[in-house]
Amino acid sequence: MTAARPLAWTKDWRFRALALVFALQVFCSARLGPWIHPTPFSEEKLDKKVPSSLRAVGYLTGFRLLVGQLFWIRVIQYYGDSDNASNRYADLYGYCSLASDLNPNFIPIYPFGASALAFHLKRPLEAERLLQKGIEANPNETRLKLLYAAIAYQNTGQYKKVIPFLEAQVVRGDAPEMLLNILANTYQEAGRPQDAINLWKRILANTDDQATRIEAAQKLQQLYATLKKSHPAP
Amino acid sequence: MNRILQVAFFTYRELIRSNILIVLIVSILAIGSLSFLLSLLSYGDSLKIFTDLGLAGAELAGWMVLLLGLAVTYNTEMDQKAIFLQLAKPVTRGEYLMGRVLGFFAVNLLVVLGNALFLAVMVLAVGGSLPPYFAVSVIFMALEMLVLTFLGLTYQMIATTMVRVVLYTFFTVLLGRMIGEIQWLIEKQSAPFLKGVLTVVYYCLPNLQVFDLKDRIYDPTLVVGFTQWQEVLLYSFSYSAVVFLIGWISLERREFR
Fold it and tell me: How large is the ipTM?
């Protein structure tokens, strides 16, 4: 009787049910493979200064979007801090890249980062790389493709092709103010001072930012001077 | 069935009376205002940011209610021996466990759905629109809470102290979130022994990444059709059944003195 006792549990229907349900669970779990980790780890190595621990926190806790949104504010602060201008915002690409890893479908990261990198910091290759990531993650986003093309043309000095793309962005109505500045500067570089003047006037009338106002006023002064030189009064 | 519902109702009332719903009010206020503030500070689609943060907050609130509920009820049920009263009645231990799970889940559902509803109302009130998979992601979150409730209460039946219950549940939740990384390691790792160990771990842990639709809510490649629903529901119920049976067997073998 004592020898039979250790095996008594095998007669319990719950153990058999447990084995059966566990097998079903394993079967279901195996079928769920494609659901898991749909985005592979980025092969690209980040700069050591970029807090990659955040990426780990985002991935491991399952709050990628939450961490991504919090980090995005940090990216904006980084670009807004004039102290970082001393090294030409050297980590901007790394920061934007991490923000896009954490939140790949948050579109504003790409136009913001790429515009700043290409038009302000003159690092078009990094801008193109960022936009490529954005287009891969969001193949239906036409804006990113347009901007990618615009940067590529800008890089090769083909202003006639750049301007329509930038104008299309501005006409949409939700373009960042920076893009308006870029278009105005491109008009100037392409030898269209009157268009540049009109746009700077529009920026001056609509902006709330004091620095942009000063910049717009200076540009207008400069453009009027240029126009005066090229068309002297009779 | 009636006895299960009686225990469920008793558990639900017990949790409500222990002021656990304060978490709901605090989470709605704190997460709502924090999301609003951060969406203003950030650059981009502020409603999208508000929705992302609100969904993450709803899930966090669900986890918090579960952990707090487990801690509070362990104290009353096991330490203060309130379980004796319920088991003295004609209630089997399996019915008792199932009833407790349902009671816990009802409170958890209230918190998650309350947060999600608040979020949806806020977004719609300011003229925004909800992402197409918003409702689906909330349902998936509720399914995750169901699995975690089964798991937490099973731990309550196995563990001998309240701290252990909370720690076991907390770390299982974290490990369940890392299931994708474990899968990645299985694919990378070449040593057969380690591969075997990781595979066992992979199948024993709850696959919480499956329920995490809130992080993929804007993914253009995401498809949630009949097959996906079928797979996720089947997985949720089969995993819950495994955990429930373990909890039931543990409770049957547990001696209360």
Answer: 0.78
